[in-house]
Design a protein that fits this description.
This protein is mainly alpha-helical. The chain has helices at residues 8-12, 16-24, 37-44, 48-59, 73-85, 88-106, 116-143, 152-176, 187-220. Helix content is 69%, strand content 0%. The longest helix has 34 residues, at 187-220.
């Protein structure tokens, strides 16, 4: 039974099936991971009972093998690097190229996401700077055995930057009208929106894994 007072972060940590439900209802389980399910549903204007029913249905599907709450922190970091950090630069370059093409070819159309290319370039700059700090400062500190208060400052900086990434995702949805292409959209335009939706999903999972699992464990473990 899903507890309405459970945090989105705790619910998201149970596996990709439940994260899919939270994404569908646009419930922010990364930056807003410490909010309760009930509070988040109220803020989003969605029916709590329906979300709970969908979450319970999702939780009955094939159990996910992931259990990052109990895996060594070294494995959590390795997973973050391999699954999220390493592919991101190429992914963003592809999005910038596609957005630039859409704006060049369709810029006069009312549905064209004017400003999207510049927005993605801004996301790229912020994410590259953010990941460099993690890879060269925070992750090495955790891997060297530092825990608790010694990590408080760097973790706080990373979480503030995660909040900014969340704002960027919301801006992306505004520019693309929730990733819904207009009827006249070409194949590049449609693919661009599909890939931006994938970026949103993966970035939210990435931030969730750090905000709600890696950072809290590193701060409390001895």
């Amino acid at each position: 039974m899903i507890n309405p007072l459970s945090t989105l972060g705790d619910i998201a940590a149970t596996g990709p099936e439940t994260r899919g439900v939270l994404l569908r209802y646009q419930l922010d389980f990364c930056c807003g991971g410490r909010r309760s399910l009930a509070d988040s549903c109220e803020r989003a204007g969605v029916r709590l009972e329906q979300v709970i029913a969908d979450l319970e249905s999702a939780s009955q599907r094939r159990p996910s093998p992931e259990d990052w709450q109990n895996r060594p922190l070294e494995e959590v970091i390795q997973h973050i690097m391999k699954r999220y950090h390493n592919p991101l630069p190429q992914q963003l370059e592809g999005l910038i190229a596609a957005a630039g093409k859409v704006e060049r070819v369709h810029g006069e159309k009312s549905a064209c996401p004017v400003g999207l290319t510049a927005h993605i370039r801004n996301i790229q700059g912020e994410l590259m700077n953010h990941m460099a700090k993690e890879e060269h400062v925070l992750f090495p500190a955790i891997l060297s055995g530092k825990r608790g208060e010694m990590l408080g400052g760097p973790v706080m900086v990373m979480m503030r930057e995660h909040d900014a990434h969340g704002e960027n995702l919301r801006r992306t949805r505004t520019l693309t009208r929730d990733f819904v292409p207009p009827p006249e959209a070409c194949a590049t335009w449609r693919t661009l929106y599909d890939e931006l939706a994938r970026l949103e999903k993966e970035l939210m999972e990435h931030i969730h894994l750090e905000n709600n699992i890696l950072f809290p464990r590193a701060l409390r473990e001895n």
